[in-house]
Amino acid sequence: MMFEDLMLPLRTRPRITIAIPSSFVSEVFDLRERTRKIGYVGRAAAIFRIEEIMIYVDDFLENAKFIADVLNYLEIPPYLRRKLVSINRNLKHVGLLPPLKSVHHIPQEFNVNIREGVVIASNEMRSVVYAGLDRNVVVHKPLVLGKRVSVEIERALSGQYLGRVVDKSSIKWYWGYEVRIFNNIEELLKNLKSNGYSILCASKKGNMIYYVEEKLSKMLKSLEKLSIIFGGPKLDIDEIAEKYGVNIQEYCDIMANFIPRQGVESVRTEEAIFIVLSIINYFREKK
């Protein structure tokens, strides 16, 4: 395999999601710093091709909604934000967010002819999609006005492009993340198990990563779906589960400490996400 092929941001197995608690922002009261903190999570998700970020409520639903609003905004390609995002107090400081620059934001940089767009006109015969280009994209099928869609550009016509709608799940490139809120940790865990996910819990009380390295490596080569669950600024995932009367051992397939002999009192959740996903990415890509 050529070096260039190894650099392509393709979707690879297993499908990986992450989960963070709503208390992730509980110790940050300044909206600017809250926004910046959430931006690190979005960047980590995009860098390591995470398909979904799940937020489970362990303190206040308002915190979960704030996190979700900022993450959803960050995931939208910049050229679509004015058309898709309404005025929202939670988004007051999104100018501080780092750009993702993932494939669906700048497809031209990756020689990809698929773009995200929004339907701006539609009738029984065709629809017109704005996709941030010099011309709109015409699709020969009715679509819901205002809906965000993925369109493949097939050819250029006079004053417009001709394209077709493609299912996001069929795109071979990493195409951004989705965001979902769960009312509590138990609801999250039950949903993951019922949908066939194996669960990895990141906790300083877990087995040192080198003790479960072989098991984790084998899991990543055989699994279809993996979810990695993180704790918050005050409580680890096992402590949050215990607080709400949930036996985490019934759900967690591996509980691991990814930072042996950490040199600080506590590791921030956004720091842990980068560390854990970096190691997971290594095992996932290692042949």
What does this structure look like?
- It contains eight helices and eleven strands.
- It has 287 residues and is of the alpha/beta class.
- The protein has two domains: 3-100 and 173-285, Alpha/beta knot; 113-170, Nucleic acid-binding proteins (OB fold (Dihydrolipoamide Acetyltransferase, E2P)).
- The protein has a six-stranded parallel sheet with strand order 8-2-1-10-9-11, sandwiched between helices. Strands 3-4-5-7-6 form a five-stranded mixed barrel.
- α6 links the parallel β9 and β10 (225-229).
- α2 crosses α3 and α2 runs parallel beside α8 (269-285).
- The model has no long low-confidence stretch (mean pLDDT 94).
- This is RNA-binding protein.
- It comes from Ignisphaera aggregans.
- It holds the Pfam family Methyltrn_RNA_3.
